[in-house]
Structure formats: structure tokens, C-alpha cells
Amino acid sequence: MAHATSLSNHQSEVYATNASFVYSAKYTHAVLSLLDPQPGEKIIDLGCGTGDLTLKIKDAVGDQGEVVGVDSSESMLSKAESASDGNITYLQADIQDLPKVLDAKYKGAFDAVFTSAVLHWTKRDPRGVVEGISWLLKPGGRFVFEFGGFGNTVGIRSGIHQVLRDKGVDPEPLDPWYFPTAAQYTKLLKDTGLNPSEDIALYPRPTPLPGDLKGWLQTFVRNTFFAAFTSEEQETMMGQVQDICRVDNHWADEDGKEGWEIMYVRLRGSATKSQ
Ligand code: BEZ
């Protein structure tokens, strides 16, 4: 689930250019190690996108295991399907509504629920997500997650809010991001009946961008925060955000090398369902 809304084919190409690093081994090693998928296990990947990590999980559980990927984007799912040889089940759904939209056969069916780089798009109903996870898990099953936590994209988000306020628009209702603290998410897990582990924590991760900040804004901000504006206004506003953020997010060396970097903050951890 690249976003909580579906992506068009074109948007999913742009996503691949500006965001494919989210699937790189360097960035996914920690959460996959925490999942530690075992041969024969049944695992569901929420917000699987183009299925890069879903495939790795399927390799680990092997022929005796079963893997299901869920995403809201039809174009991402069709990419995932064509890469999978039909040995992974892919379902289209909003992960905030799972018990309402999935077949009853999935209730209590999974040893593990996995999700990476997606739950920060579930501001509408983060509790609904966790209720769905509890519905999916077998007794004793585990939930392993990583997503943007408190302080994620620091500076960039302030720049976006500032540009909206300068246009006389309240940014709060347009902001699609949910970046909880470790304590807030731990409480949500407990309130929803899961047993959070002690290891839930925030991990700052400076992340170099493959292009400039405008490319990133084009992928993640243009059709979310700035969706109601004309494309000319969107261009101007993305330029303004880039200008505001340049001081903290752009570096340049004397030999002419330069680049853009964002401070991502990962909230990573796990929880279990009681036996
Ligand atoms: C993230 O992976 O943390 C993220 C990506 C795009 C927009 C916001 C957050």
C-alpha cells in the first residue's frame, strides 16, 4: 500500500523512481530479521506494494508455507503478481478495513502479520489496522512492523504545512500522515488486546534521495497534501517546500558533488496475540 489511496500506473512508475529504495536490503534487513520467517509458516504482508519483500518472505517459508500480500493499489498488485509465479496470493484491500472486507477464512489464519513502510498512511483508522491484525493472527501469532514514527520527515513536513498556511489553508486535515511515538503505538497495541514487546522504539535513518526533493514531493505530496490545487500551483508549492528545506536537506561539496537527504524515523517492533 504505497498510499492509502490507489496509485495509477503512471503514479506507480513515478513511485518506483523516487521510492524504490524502501525495498533495498540495507533498509529492510532489520525488520525482516525481526520477522524471522520460518519454513512452513503462514504469513500476511500488509501494504505489500510491488511485492519485493513478500517474495523474500515466501522464499523463507518455502513450499510448505503460505504467503498472502495485501495492497490497495491495483497497479502495484499487478506488478507483484507478475513477479510471483502464482505462488503468492495477492488481495486488493484497504488495510484499515480488513475484517469487513476479507473472506472469513482469513480470520485467525496467520502465524505472523508483517508490514513495512506503510502504516504511516493509515491516519484515518490506525486502531482499525491493529484490530484487523488481531483478527488475522492465530493465538500466539506475532505482528512485526516498521513504519514512519514520531519525527519522521522532520523539517519537510513543517515546510509543507508552512506553504499551505501561506495560502490560507489549514494543513492539519490535509495531512495524511500518522507518525506515532513508541509509547503511543505501544498503548494502541495494548488497548487493542495485543501484547507489545519491550523492543518497540524509534530509529532515525538519514536517507539519501535518488533525485531532488521535488521528485520526492511529486511522489508523496503532490496528490495528497496538495491534491486540491491546480498543477501549476502544485509545481510552485513544491518548489517553495524545496527552497524552505534546502538549508537542512541539501548538501554540496567543493568538488561539485551534491545531493538531497531526508531524515526518516522508523518505528520498529513487534507484538503477540495471547494463546
Ligand atoms: C516513510 O517511508 O516514512 C514515508 C514515505 C513517504 C512519505 C512519508 C513517509
Structure notes:
- This protein has helices spanning 9-19, 25-35, 52-61, 74-82, 98-101, 126-136, 156-166, 182-191, 213-220, 231-249, and strands at residues 42-46, 66-71, 89-92, 110-116, 137-148, 195-196, 201-208, 250-252, 258-272.
- It is an alpha/beta fold and 275 residues long.
- Strands 1, 2, 3, 4, 5, 6, 7, 8 and 9 form a nine-stranded mixed sheet that branches.
- The two termini are 30 Å apart.
- 40% of the residues are buried.
- Residues 39-145 form the Methyltransferase domain.
Shape: globular
Largest sheet: 9 strands, mixed
Q: What fraction strand?
A: 15-25%
Count of individual beta strands: 9
Annotation field: number of helices: 10
Low-confidence stretches: none
What gyration radius follows from the Cα positions, in whole Å? 19 Å
Distance between the termini: 30 Å
Small molecules (ligands, ions, cofactors) in the structure: benzoic acid
Order of helices and strands: HHEHEHEHEHEHHEEHHEE
**Strand-pairing-aware structural class:** alpha/beta
Kindly state the mean pLDDT as a whole number? 94
Helix content: 25-40%
Helices and strands, with pairings:
Blueprint: H1 9-19, H2 25-35, E1 42-46, H3 52-61, E2 66-71, H4 74-82, E3 89-92, H5 98-101, E4 110-116, H6 126-136, E5 137-148, H7 156-166, H8 182-191, E6 195-196, E7 201-208, H9 213-220, H10 231-249, E8 250-252, E9 258-272
Parallel strand pairs: 1-2, 1-4, 2-3, 4-5
Antiparallel strand pairs: 5-9, 6-9, 7-9, 8-9
Helix pairs in contact: 1-9, 7-10, 9-10
The protein binds benzoic acid.
Keywords: Methyltransferase, Transferase
Domain Methyltransferase: 39-145
Protein name: S-adenosyl-L-methionine-dependent methyltransferase
